[in-house]
Amino acid sequence: MPENILEEETIDLVAILQQGELANVTFVLYKDGEQVHEENRNFTGKRAFLSYKTPTVDQDKDSYTLTAEAKYDGEVAELEDEYIVWPAKGKLKVVDEKEKKPLKGFPFRIMQGGKQTGKKYTVNSDDGSIEFKLRAGHTFTIQAISPYEIKKETKVHNREIELEAVLNFEAEFIEPDIETLGIAELFGEEGGDEIELDDAGRVKQFVNLPTKKDGRDGLGTEVKIKVGVKGDRDKPDSEKIGKADMEIYIKATFGPDGTVADPDSPLGLKATKSKRTDASFPTELVDAEGITSEDKDKAKVYKGKVKLKADGTAEFKVKLGLAGGDTCKVEIGSTDAYDNASMEFANWRKLYYEIVAPNFMSTDASYLEKR
To answer: 21 partner at 20 to 30 Å CA-CA among 44, 68, 347, 360?
Structure first.
């Protein structure tokens, strides 16, 4: 039965003299029936030996059969040695399906004969390529490791594959975390600072009051928003799905656009964005890449993206302006569908008052309890 071996592996052949005497013998080797090597070897006693390094497998073939024979005194003896020779290495190049750029960080397994060969591999090169070892006996396939998914596979030849793949992840808001916390305690000392939500689930952002927490306490005209990959919280950086340079897409719509009734209006009026313009307090998306803006209906829509840092997070800001009643809806996603998570802010202004009474009036309201 043929033995499965790898290309460029050294095999040892032996010719045994059964009777008589010979000074030497000629070993002849065949690759799929075609001669590839011939070498004369002297006998040592009754045996002649040949060490031979197997040729590489042709790129258009999965394997080849290597056979040998011994020639002596015009006779030919076929040796019992027969080998199936397989590629020792494979090569993979992977790019992002959408941007066609090298997909660094792509994790995968090599599958041969229904089993994993070797360790789990990760593409770490800047050009998105990697070489890997194979075992003899089977062809190989590439299996992406979740949350990555292979979208297209091109076989350059039988030991080199090119892939287009995607990273299927879901973006989430980390700070402020309205979806998880509801009326939340965010980033305060023990006891926290509470933010408020209106009846539509929007953050009441009191824009006329100063913030000490980058707007994440429901105060101030700017909010710094931190985003990351869902499922990464509390994981060490090495185990996170989110890696440096991965991108999260952002859409910020500054309104209202006049199409939805204001939940704070007793008459159910359809509010529109304030016409107030103040260069010192604009409404815009900042600290993101590739920012674009357009007027849509009666709202202003900004789009951009951020790249994750080594810790798997990224930050950007929305500037909400000073006009009470204005809104800002922030949507994020792993693609420009912006469909993973959203949060909305509504501008409020908080006023304080103090009751002052003349000396001849009583400020003691306890008498009311008796009535």
So the answer is: 68
